[in-house]
Design goal:
Elements lengths: L20 H9 L4 E2 L6 E6 L4 E6 L14 E8 L22 H8 L4 E2 L10 E6 L2 E7 L6 E8 L8
Antiparallel strand pairs: 1-2, 2-3, 3-4, 4-8, 5-6, 6-7, 7-8
Length: about 160
């Protein structure tokens, strides 16, 4: 099994091209991944055994040319065990875990700045927090109200992380 990575390795890559030397070095250090074919300006690097994926996306202001140089790291998705056939991401940032309930996340991170509509039981399907210069988006398991996946991106204007 590959060695777990620290989340701290990822934020310096935000905004870099999938072909940037720093990204190439990261991928060389963590070889157990698969790079998908680009689709509609998006390209994923999938690390199932390490519990995360990277999303490289064409920035909105970029002309329509689709090249690897124009796709930059937009988001990282951290998965709980078994979600989308991923292993669990070993150490999510900000002191959060995949067993934290919604109440635990609010106690740790404060009130979210955005939430989905409530279901019939009064629970949101997802919520977002701003943490320094990052945005954290979680999708809840409707049964346990714990997180299935955390999506993290740079900037507070990241409405489409998931």
């Amino acid at each position: 099994m590959p060695e777990a990575i620290s989340f701290d390795e990822i934020p310096p890559l935000f905004g870099l091209s999938i072909e940037a030397p720093e990204v190439a070095m990261f991928l060389a250090r963590h070889r157990d991944h698969r790079v998908t074919k680009p689709s509609d300006g998006d390209q994923y690097v999938i690390f199932k055994s390490l519990g995360f994926d990277l999303l490289f996306r064409q920035p909105p202001a970029t002309p329509e040319r689709r090249s690897p140089h124009s796709r930059v790291l937009r988001s990282v998705f951290l998965y709980r065990e078994g979600q989308d056939r991923h292993a669990a991401f070993a150490q999510p940032p900000f002191g959060i875990t995949f067993v934290d309930t919604r109440a635990d996340l609010i106690a740790r991170l404060g009130q979210p700045y955005r939430s989905s509509d409530l279901d019939v039981e009064g629970n949101p399907g997802w919520e977002k927090w701003r943490i320094a210069d990052l945005t954290l988006h979680t999708m809840y398991d409707r049964v346990t109200m714990t997180s299935k996946v955390f999506a993290i991106g740079r900037g507070c204007d990241a409405p489409d992380l998931l």
